[in-house]
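Fold Annotation — chain and its backbone

Encoding — discrete vocabulary of local shapes
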Amino acid sequence: MEDKIFVNQISEFLNKEIISNFLVVQKDLREGTKDFYLRLKLADKTGSISGNIWNNAKVIDEKFKEGDVIKVKGIVISYKSQIQLTVNKVRVMKSEEYNLSDYIEATSKDITKLSEKLYQFIDNINDSYLKELLLSIFEDKEFFTLFAKSPAAKTWHHNYIGGLLEHTIAVSTICDFITHLYPVNKDLLLTGAILHDIGKVYEYNIKSIIDFSVIGRLIGHISLGDQLICEKAALINNFPKETLMKLRHLILAHHGEFEKASVRLPQTLEAVVLHHADNLDAQTTGVQQIIESVQNKDAEWSDFDKLNNRYYYIK
């Protein structure tokens, strides 16, 4: 197996030809002023890079798909201060030619320490019903294994193995801090923070790339999380209906706006706090990932953030 050039090493080969292999995360055939070209997002465990195929793009487009690992031959260039790859040759690699672990990004955080922090939050819940609910979910070893490996998104923030656990701890930490500032129900808010994205365990599939599962695309993580909570609460003797209703509202309202797929608008103080804590971590981490993906050390600006319609100044 040949030595691989990883994405975080590519800037060292500026204006040089390289041969290496990458995971195809996105592939888009576009029509240019003269002919079609192929826009690629190539990745490995160290990050991602944009690539373009200018010649014979329509024919080459048929040779591979998103999720394939391809060997490419191309020139490393700088365009608008961003490192890119002009791809000249492509070959789809066979599974025995590479180690998939080289291409799937994972959290840089220690999973064991994140898990310990999660259980610390649960241990500090005083409401016996909410604590029993949390333990009934996370003491299921099979479920917790899935939870600890799940991403928090497909493309925007924490979109890597372990991202859901990392995001959950961050949101819970923010909410825990906020309990010292505002008169919120701490146990309810922390339980909502821990469970707000629990449905994402079932929303995504991870093979070579992160994609939506069938149930994730049709039902979505908010409804899946609400269903799981209702099912688990039904098994707890005399679980208070009022508490369950308030907790469900946290889950159903945490996206904050109908335009962003929220089932309900936040209508309790805890729901308002959870929405903003969730959005704070998601947006901050998403922007951080964009900034950290810049390969050119001399660049002043990041790649364009299509979601938020802006560049970020990085000097």
